[in-house]
Each structure stands twice: as structure tokens, then as C-alpha cells.
Amino acid sequence: MMIPTIEDVKAAAKRIQGIAVRTPLLRNDALDAHTGAKIFVKAECLQRGGAFKMRGATNAIAALSPEARARGVIAFSSGNHAIAVSTAAKLFGIEATIVMPADAPKIKLETTRANGATVVTYDRVKESREEIGARIAAEKGASLIKPFDDPFVIAGQGTCGLEIGEEISPDIVFVPASGGGLSAGVALALPGARIIAVEPQEHNDIARTLESGSIQRNAPGIRSICDGLLTEQMGEIPYAIARERFEMAVGVSDDAVRRAMKFAFRYLKVVLEPSGAASLAAALEGGVDLSGKTVAVIASGGNVDAETFTQALTA
Q1: What phi and psi values does residue 201 have, to the nearest 5 degrees?
Q2: What is the DSSP string of the chain?
Q3: How far apart are CA 104 and CA 122, in angstroms?
Q4: What are the tens digits of pLDDT across the range 66-104?
Q5: Confidence check: pLDDT of 288 > 90
Q6: pLDDT, position 233
Q7: Average pLDDT for residues 280-300, to the nearest whole number?
Q8: Mean pLDDT of the chain
Q9: pLDDT, tens digit, 9 for 90 and up, residues 228-259
Q10: What's the gap between Cα 165 and its chain centre?
């Protein structure tokens, strides 16, 4: 098992330069007043493809040999990784097959197909996306771009943390976490910061994993509006980093996430999807004492359908 380092994150930054976007850190007095801290929101909702996933997907595909790229790539994803891999594949001029849950948000399915990818849907309760992805990869000879348990993907996601560190020195970083690729990458990039992983309240495998000292699974069928944070368990590589670097994992309710989406729209003038608003929800009402701290909050994505966003604004 290859564990990436901060040097791998720096190498990824060079590979993806000019493809992934350097996103801004947003501030607002209302956010600081609410928390008693200096809050900086990393707006990955403004990333190419609408989410941080573009970083890892681009790095992983760029690291493939020309021969491997010619055989195409395959990925499994509930949405944002699908969009990122299909976008990166289109830019590299290669074929992409994406395995997506049948109940993925319509906007994410449509965007992935619009990028020219072949979409294969599955039942996330009854079927294993890993098994489906591995089978198709073997049939096509395509390279599997895993959503989080891949050193190149983790290093690519870590470039988000590098950018934060180039502008501020955060005491605490709130990172949305499911498989753990983004949170592990950010932990590598910001070795001096306290890393707090954020997950849906009832989908709390990371909290249980950190407490027990072994990777824990979520029961199938747990639902949350944070569709991008519903992976059954974190990856082995992210866990190897998390057990050394994560301070804790906190859970957020769907209602708290809706309030964070509404807050971001009103005060930061950005549109966040539920998963992308989870870290902001944790900072606003997650019970962590932030007084006097410099805090980075990663707003990981903005790919939300109109109905879900309207429900958040009117809640």
C-alpha cells in the first residue's frame, strides 16, 4: 500500500496546474461574529466541474502512461467524482465509463453524460459499485480511477490544502469526509493544522473508526441529503493517514446542512450542494470551540439541483 506524502501533493500541484482552478478563500463578518473565530471558506464549489474532485481525477489520469490512457478509464461515484473523471477524460481525449447509483442527483447524471462518458447505473443498497467497476475495468482493460483509496487521487485532493497554506496558517480545518480522500490529502498538505472530519450524523463510520482503531462500515440504506458523503467506509490509505492526523470526526444533521447552504447563499454569495455545505454546518453549529482561532472550512462542491437548493433556502 503506497501512502502519499506532502511531496506527492506538491508534484500533483504541478501536474494539474492550468487544468484545475485555484479557488478563493472567502470571508464574511457575519461568519466570524457567529463563531468568534477568523473563518476562511475554501470555495471548491467554484472548481472546474463544480467540486474538489477535479483535482484528484486530473492528477490520477495525468499520471497514467500514454498507453494506459489510450485504453480509457473507469470510475464509480455518486456524482462529483463522476463529473471530475468524465471532465478530465474529455480534456485528455480518452474514453470514460462511470458507474453511478441510480438515485444519484439528476444534475450529476446529466453532467457526466454531457461530458461524453458512458454511465452504468446500479442499486446502491443491493449492488457493490466496487465489484461492478472492477468487472468492467477487466473487460475493457481500462484504468480504474478510485474515488478516494488511491495515492494519486489523495495527492491531487491535497492540493486544495496546499493553496490554503499558501494564504493562511489555519489552526483548525473542517473537511467533509466519506471515503477520506480529500481529508487525508488536506492533512498531508497542512501538517500543522488540527484536522476535523465532517460526516452525516447517522452515517458516522469515521467517528467510530477513529474511536475503535479499525475501519468501521455503515449499515446499508442510511440516507442523508449529503449524497456525496454516503460511502460505506473510508479507504485503507486515507485511514492510515487519518489515524495519525485526524483530531476527530463530527456529525451534522440534514437540517444543519440546509441552514449552512442558506447561510452560504446569503452571506458568501455561493451555491453549495449539501455535501459541500457539511463543513460549514459543523463550523456554525458543530459544538467545536473556535474562539480566537484561524479556521479553514472546505466548501467542497456546488453541484445541487434546483429543488434541493430551493428546499434549503425556504427551510
Answers
A1: -55, -45
A2: -PPP-HHHHHHHHHHHBTTB--PPEE--HHHHHHHTSEEEEEEGGGSGGGBTHHHHHHHHHHTS-HHHHHT-EEEE-SSHHHHHHHHHHHHHT--EEEEEETTS-HHHHHHHHHTTPEEEEE-TTTS-HHHHHHHHHHHHTPEE--SSSSHHHHHHHHHHHHHHHHH---SEEEEE-SSSHHHHHHHHH-TTSEEEEEEETT--HHHHHHHHTS---PPTT---S-GGG--SS--HHHHHHHHHHEEEEEEE-HHHHHHHHHHIIIII-----HHHHHHHHHHHHS----TT-EEEEEE-B----HHHHHHHHH-
A3: 10
A4: 999 999 999 988 788 899 999 999 999 999 999 998 988
A5: yes
A6: 94
A7: 95
A8: 94
A9: 899 889 999 999 999 999 999 999 999 999 99
A10: 18
Angle at 78 between CA 287 and CA 105, to 5 degrees: 90
Cell (9 digits) for 37 = 473565530
The C-alpha cell that represents 92 in the structure block: 485528455
**13, three cell numbers:** 500541484
Q: Bridge-partner residues for 20, per DSSP?
A: 17
Instruction: Name the one residue in this structure whose C-alpha cell is 480504474.
Output: 144
Contact 48, 19 (CB under 8 A): yes
The single residue listed with the C-alpha cell 501533493 is 9
Count of CB atoms within 10 A of residue 284's CB? 21
* Per-residue model confidence as pLDDT tens digits over 155-204: 999 999 999 999 999 999 999 999 999 999 999 999 999 999 999 999 99
Let me know: does 144 contact 85? Beta carbons within 8 Å.
no
